[in-house]
Structures are given as structure tokens and as C-alpha cells.
Design a protein that fits this description.
By secondary structure, the chain is mainly alpha-helical. The mean pLDDT is about 95. Helices cover about 60% and strands about 0% of the residues. A two-stranded antiparallel sheet has the order 1-2. The structure holds acetyl coenzyme *A and oxaloacetate ion. GO terms for molecular function: citrate synthase activity.
Length: about 425
């Protein structure tokens, strides 16, 4: 058994009595009421999910295992010659709640290398899809195809399912998937946009470094990849991708079924696809200007035109956050400290939108949060390093998001969380509750 799995087993054994005590002795303690607005309005604010992997404060933003983004970057072991940590170290932290040593980190790096080979049948599936399929449809299909190799499903179908130990199979599937998602993403990218030429993995590189290498993009794109995957990993468990993954896994579907579902949710324009939409919107705006430098007035008009046509401003607003997303700030700071990027016209435009859009959205008066989210800032960095195919951006998000979703469903099985099944009511029942019928 790997050291990570051993440490995780220990953490699970320590944690289980806490969950058992709450369920056995305190099940009736109320966490709040549910009102009609919440029942119709996407369950906003209802506390009915439990996760210890991350927590989202509306004002402060995300904390991974209690750590803010800067604290996370500071604490974890760094890749030699880089100021960014190993993604593998972050995986350890999400799973166990502890910061790993360099030795423990390198063990995960090695473990993922052993698991990273893309099966030929996955490549066959990708190649059989129409080449103009959306990269998210390709990515989701690749994940779903790998279900045939699920350790969890094999144990279940052989009649050996055990509630206490099934997390171990989930961990195996999660590790196998985590190791393969970067190479699969790079394969899709190069098949679709780089003349179907491919670059073999470099056995000397970590996960983030290898992703940059297999994409064919030189340094500092390896750092961009590490930063990107870590900050996009998790956003507590009620967001669409995490919740979809958790929901599907709650039926004891394996990690491949579950995360393919999560990816399908991430592909929606109100969720992960917003990072594609931001670039599309920005490029459209630039092309209307025909090369002219945008003015604040021109930008305000474009924002109002979008709102008046009934569209949302992509990259702005949030279901929980009520201030600028710290993931936006992290990426903005990366741009500001990177020579070339800080004066890049597209970054200047994104910064100008940051100055103008919150005022426009406030005046518009609908969005509860007029501030930018993670998606408003990620595309410009990709564009600068040559990834101009913005329909690919959500695949990058999906590689990172797997860290959170897969850590969560491993713990779901460890703690025996039940099959999810909220209750529905009819409109008439709501009218009766409201006293209007
Ligand atoms: C990784 C992520 O998923 S981060 C989010 C990525 N998505 C985007 O950036 C898309 C743009 N933003 C949005 O559509 C929304 O802000 C969401 C989906 C993120 C959150 O939705 P909600 O929690 O329903 O937001 P909120 O309660 O503020 O919505 C109230 C109203 O303001 C509108 N609104 C919210 N954000 C925006 C926006 N950026 N532009 C225009 N209108 C907006 C909503 O559409 C809603 O209008 P309605 O009453 O006509 O239905
Ligand atoms: O938290 C949410 O609802 C959306 C989001 O920012 C994410 O999933 O990263």
C-alpha cells in the first residue's frame, strides 16, 4: 500500500466516529429552514451537503483544507526551480488534510507516472468522434470509456462490495484517473488543434510539468498549469460539477461514471464554460473595434448591449461569493508580475472590464454579486501562452476540478454517505404553503 493510502486509511479511521456520533445522536438538530425561493431557485444556501475538503466563505473565498490560496502555495513542497508546488502534493493535502513532506510528494509523483499511460481504446474513442466535437464532449467521453477499467465496479460486480473498505477501490480509480487526465487533455488539444501531432510524456517531469510538455508549450507554462490546476480544484461541494459527481457516486456508480457527469455539468456556460464565453465575448468586442484601443465608454456600451439583449456578462457574478474571487486575484497577480503579460493588450482589456463591469452590473441591479469570478481572468493567460482555442479552456478546468471532485467521492465512500434523494413537492403544495390556494 502506498504511503498516501496508508495515511488516508488512518485519517479515515480517526474521522469515522465523528460522523457516526453526529448521525446517531444528533440527526434531529436543525441546520435551518427551507423556503419557497430556495425550492424554486436552485437550492441556494440550503445546508445539506457535508465536505471537509474545502469551504467557501462568501467574502473571503475558498480555503482548501483550511488554507487560503496564498497559504496553500506557501505551504506545499515546490517543484525544483519553480515557485509553484507539485499538484501531487496538493492532492495529498486535499485527501488527508496534511501538508506532505518532499519525500511523500515524490512518492505520489512516482505513483502517478506508473498510472499515466492512456489506454489505446481511449485514443480510439477520441479519434472515432467527429473532429469538430466540443473538447468537453471528447473529454467526458474519454473518462466514461475508462469505466471498463474501474476497480470499484469490478469489486462490486464480483459480489465483494464492503461498505467499510470500498473507499480503497474509489481511491484506486481516482488515482488512475488523476494520472491520466493531463495526458488525455493534451492529446485532445494536439489532435484537434496541432495537426494531430503528439508529444510523449517525459518521465522526469511532475504532473504539471508534463502537461505543459505534452501540450508543447515551453516554460513558464508548466507553472501556469500547476497554478491553474490547484486553484480550479475545488469550491466546496454544492457547485454543479462537484455536486453532480457526488450525486452520481452516491448511487455507488464508480468514479468514471461520476466524474464524466461532473464534466458534463462543468461544460455549462453558467459554470465552467464561462471561461470560454469570456474570451468569446472579449474577442467579439475587440473585433467590433477593428483594431482601435477600447475606451471606457465603448466598453460600457458593449456591457449594456449584452445585458439588454438578455445575456449575462460572462465571468461576473457568483452563487455564493460576494466579493472578487481570490482565484481571479491570484491569476491577476500572476499577470501583473509576468513581464510581457502585464502590458499585453488583452490583459489590459480584461483589467478595464474589471474596473467598469461591477459598476454596470450594480446599476443594472440584478446580480447579487457584481464582482468577477475565476473565469474572468483565466483565458487571457492561456491566450498569451498560445492556447487561443478558447473552446479548450474548460478541459483545463476539468483536469483541475478532478482533484476536488475525486477527493470528495473517496471520502464520501469512506464515511458511508447515503444515496442522495431530496424530496420534491408540487406547485400546488407551494401555493398551499403560501396560503394562496
Ligand atoms: C466556476 C464558476 O462556475 S463561476 C461562475 C461562472 N459563470 C459565469 O460567470 C456566468 C455569469 N454569471 C451568472 O450567470 C451568475 O452570476 C451565476 C450563474 C454565476 C450565479 O447565478 P445566481 O446565483 O442565480 O446569481 P444571482 O442570484 O446574482 O442572480 C440574480 C439575477 O442576476 C442575474 N445575473 C447574475 N450574474 C449576472 C451576470 N454576470 N450578468 C448579468 N446578469 C447576471 C441572474 O441571471 C439573475 O437574473 P434573473 O433574476 O433574471 O434570473
Ligand atoms: O462555486 C460555484 O458555484 C461555482 C464555482 O465558482 C466553482 O465551482 O468553481
Amino acid at each position: 500500500m502506498s504511503t498516501l493510502k496508508q495515511v488516508l486509511a488512518q485519517k479515515i479511521a480517526e474521522h469515522r466516529p465523528r460522523t457516526t456520533k453526529l448521525v446517531k445522536e444528533f440527526s434531529d438538530v436543525s441546520l435551518g429552514e427551507v423556503n419557497i425561493g430556495q425550492a424554486i431557485g436552485g437550492a441556494r444556501g440550503i445546508k445539506c451537503l457535508v465536505t471537509d475538503i474545502s469551504y467557501l466563505d462568501p467574502m473571503e473565498g475558498i480555503r482548501f483544507r483550511g488554507k487560503t490560496i496564498p497559504e496553500t502555495f506557501e505551504a506545499l513542497p515546490k517543484v525544483p526551480g519553480s515557485e509553484y508546488p507539485y499538484v501531487e502534493a496538493f492532492w495529498w493535502m486535499l485527501l488527508t488534510g496534511d501538508v506532505p513532506t518532499m519525500e511523500q510528494t515524490l512518492e505520489v509523483v512516482e505513483d502517478w507516472k506508473q498510472r499515466a499511460q492512456i489506454p489505446q481504446y481511449v485514443i480510439d474513442v477520441l479519434r472515432a468522434l467527429p473532429r469538430d466535437s466540443h473538447p468537453m464532449a471528447m473529454f467526458s467521453s474519454a473518462i466514461l470509456a475508462m469505466q471498463r477499467d474501474s476497480v470499484f465496479a469490478k469489486t462490486y460486480s464480483s459480489g465483494k462490495f464492503n461498505k467499510m473498505t470500498c473507499w480503497e477501490d474509489m481511491y484506486e480509480d481516482a488515482s488512475n484517473m488523476m494520472a491520466k487526465l493531463g495526458p488525455i487533455g493534451a492529446y485532445i488539444y494536439r489532435m484537434k488543434y496541432m495537426g494531430d501531432t503528439h508529444i510523449a510524456a517525459d518521465p522526469d517531469l511532475d504532473m504539471g510539468g508534463n502537461f505543459a510538455h505534452m501540450m508543447g508549450i515551453p516554460a513558464p507554462y508548466d507553472n501556469v498549469a500547476r497554478m491553474y490546476f490547484i486553484i480550479h480544484s475545488d469550491h466546496e461541494s454544492g457547485n454543479v460539477s462537484a455536486h453532480a459527481t457526488h450525486l452520481v457516486a452516491s448511487a455507488l456508480s464508480d468514479a468514471y461514471y461520476a466524474y464524466s457527469a461532473g464534466i458534463n455539468g462543468l461544460a455549462g456556460p453558467l459554470h465552467g464554460l464561462a471561461n470560454e464565453e469570456v474570451l468569446r465575448w472579449t474577442q467579439n468586442f475587440m473585433s467590433h473595434l477593428g483594431g482601435e484601443v477600447p475606451t471606457e465608454e465603448g466598453l460600457k456600451k458593449a456591457l449594456w448591449d449584452t445585458l439588454n439583449s438578455g445575456q449575462v456578462i460572462p465571468g461576473y457574478g457568483h452563487a455564493v461569493l460576494r466579493k472578487t474571487d481570490p482565484r481571479y486575484t491570484t491569476q491577476r497577480e500572476f499577470c501583473l508580475k509576468t513581464e510581457g503579460l502585464k502590458d499585453y493588450p488583452l490583459f489590459k482589456l480584461v483589467s478595464m472590464i474589471f474596473e467598469v463591469a461591477p459598476g454596470v452590473l450594480t446599476e443594472h441591479g440584478k446580480a447579487k454579486n457584481p464582482w468577477p469570478n475565476v473565469d474572468a481572468q483565466s483565458g487571457v493567460i492561456q491566450w498569451y501562452y498560445g492556447v487561443t482555442q478558447y473552446e479548450f479552456y474548460t478541459v483545463l478546468f476539468g483536469i483541475g476540478r478532478a482533484l476536488g471532485c475525486l477527493a470528495n467521492i473517496t471520502w464520501d465512500r469512506a464515511l458511508g454517505y447515503g444515496i442522495e434523494r431530496p424530496k420534491s413537492v408540487t406547485t400546488e403544495m407551494l401555493e398551499k404553503a403560501a396560503g394562496i390556494k
